[in-house]
Write a structure and sequence with these properties.
CATH superfamily of the largest domain: Hypothetical protein af1432
CATH class of the largest domain: Mainly Alpha
Number of helices: 20
CATH topology of the largest domain: Hypothetical protein af1432
Helix content: 40-55%
Largest sheet: 6 strands, antiparallel
Number of domains: 3
Strand order of the largest sheet: 10-9-8-13-12-11
Shape: globular
Distance between the termini: 63 Å
Bound molecules: fe (ii) ion
Structural class: alpha/beta
């Protein structure tokens, strides 16, 4: 490796994808430290350069071929890196923490004063003989302009990297974060209108509000949502009930150019707010948000129709067997109850409800002769039956929309001890929603009449759940289910008057807890 001698000029590698910034930094460093400078515009170029040995690396965060932090991790695995200075216009707390963890020597937020960089470089190059520093004033001014341009480009990049597949909640949250950064605001919030119910609902904010919705009619936002053009200014009044009064402004959020909500930014410097670059960026962000929300609404409608179709398919499937009629609906409902009892959020409860509805959809592919067989399965028949989670997975695979539901379908017969199927996952390897549906499925199987046996009383289900917690079932899920049973929220058909259907002959098939 390269060893700096006290007399040799310091060697500094500058990594930045923007030519003007690269040359600005080079000029600055060459001037002040008489340094020998190498440059790279991409991480790949930097990697090739690194072998030449440097005393210091100065790198931008986001390069065309990736993120510098990820590259640093990669490089560290192969060689001893010289001190690294990271410069970026977009430093989230996460990035700074990650940079510190990786041993990055200094993190500088753009735009920074050139002296700040020079001081940092000086401190990190201990063997360099001190040079007289004489900055050129015009160089500094040029630097400010360059950084402003770089910052703007960075925001454009940021606006377009808001993930579009993450759901409306994540989209609004990220868009708000970017808006706050563009405006240099202290915070803000976003709310969407629900016109049918005449209200404005809080969807994202830098603080948690005490009230999540307000009446739209008669509120300050009514006009803004009518015209879609006005801008509301805040000063002495709170912008949302419970918030402290703060200087700021509200703009309409649109979808297909129709106003659908409100973006409010608070703690804003009024002079900066008039800045043309900021106005342009904010307009671009709102335009992008329009497209993303519209896209999201379409996706949601599509997902809903796919879900409906699949649920109809499950009903058809269950109609083949009078004993499993409504089984999937009950499993879904019970799974959602268990999820809530475990303190999981509504989104997860809804996920396991739909996952429960669909869990046995793969049985579509199982022949009636096997599916409806009243007696004990042969080994071969059981093997056929065991294919249903995989078949269900294959059915849903083509629908990108139900990715998490698919995991439930595939893994609802896995066991905590790894003896389940199809992938023999164990413990936490099994997605939690699948572990929940597994317990709900077993409870419903035990407490309802089947073609091969009568329903068992709840006491039997309780006993089996306790006995198999930890081996077959997730103990935490079992605990929640037992609490529901204790509170009388689960019923067994064994405790109800028998219907004509179940008075028909049935035969015994053992081991129904592990049945397919
Ligand atoms: Fe199943």
């Amino acid at each position: 490796t390269h060893r700096p001698s006290p007399k040799a000029p310091p060697r500094i590698l500058v990594i930045d994808d923007q030519g003007p910034i690269r040359s600005f930094l080079c000029e600055l460093l060459a001037h002040d430290f008489n340094a020998q400078i190498g440059t790279a515009a991409t991480l790949a170029e930097a990697e090739a350069q690194l072998r030449k040995g440097w005393d210091l690396v100065i790198t931008d965060m986001t390069l065309p071929d990736g993120n510098a932090l990820e590259a640093i991790t990669r490089w560290q695995a192969h060689e001893a890196l010289p001190p690294v200075v990271l410069i970026s216009g977009f430093l989230s707390e996460d990035y700074i923490a990650e940079a510190k963890r990786l041993g990055v020597a200094e993190v500088l937020a753009k735009p920074f004063r050139p002296e700040a960089l020079l001081d940092t470089v000086h401190a990190l190059l201990p063997k360099t003989p001190q040079h007289e520093r004489h900055r050129l004033p015009e160089l500094k001014a040029l630097g400010d302009d360059l950084f402003a341009m770089d910052r703007k480009m960075g925001f454009v990049f940021k606006i377009f990297s808001i993930p579009h597949r993450e759901g409306a909640h994540e989209i609004t949250k990220r868009a708000l974060e970017v808006a706050v950064q563009i405006e240099g605001a202290q915070g803000g919030w976003m709310a969407l209108a629900e016109r049918a119910r005449n209200r404005l609902v809080w969807v994202a904010g830098s603080v948690e509000p005490s009230v999540r919705e307000i009446r739209l009619a008669g509120s300050k936002f009514e006009a803004l949502l009518e015209s879609g053009e006005e801008e509301l200014f805040w000063d002495t009044e709170p912008s949302w009930p419970g918030l402290a009064p703060q200087q700021g402004f509200s703009l309409p959020i649109t979808m297909q150019d129709e106003p659908v909500g409100v973006l409010t930014l608070l703690g804003v410097d009024p002079a900066a707010h008039r800045d043309i670059d900021r106005r342009q960026l904010l307009a671009l962000l709102l335009r992008r948000l329009d497209v993303l929300l519209d896209n999201q609404a379409m996706q949601a409608a599509l997902a809903e129709s796919v879900r409906e179709t699949l649920i109809a398919l499950v009903r058809t499937l269950e109609a083949r067997d009078r004993y499993t009629k409504d089984h999937s609906r009950r499993v879904g409902d019970l799974a959602a109850k268990i999820a809530r009892e475990m303190g999981l959020d509504e989104e997860t409860a809804e996920l396991v409800r739909v996952g429960g509805l669909l869990h046995d959809i793969g049985k579509v592919g199982i022949p009636d002769a096997v599916l409806l067989k009243p007696g004990r399965y042969t080994e071969r028949e059981f093997a056929i039956m065991k294919a249903h989670p995989g078949i269900g997975d294959a059915i849903l695979k083509h629908m990108d929309l139900l990715v998490r539901e698919r995991q439930i379908v595939r893994h609802h017969h896995e066991r905590m001890d790894g003896r389940g199927y199809p992938d023999r996952l164990r413990g936490e390897e099994i997605p939690l929603p699948a572990r929940i549906v597994c317990v709900a499925d077993a409870i419903d199987a035990m407490t309802t009449h089947r073609v091969y046996r009568k329903a068992q009383p709840l006491s039997f289900a309780v006993e089996q759940l306790r006995k198999n917690a930890g081996t077959q079932f997730d103990p935490k899920v079992v605990e929640a289910a037992l609490r529901l049973i204790e509170r009388g929220e689960v019923r067994s058909q064994a405790d109800e008057a028998p219907s004509a259907e179940i008075l028909l002959p049935y035969s015994a098939r053992e081991d129904f807890i592990t049945e397919a």
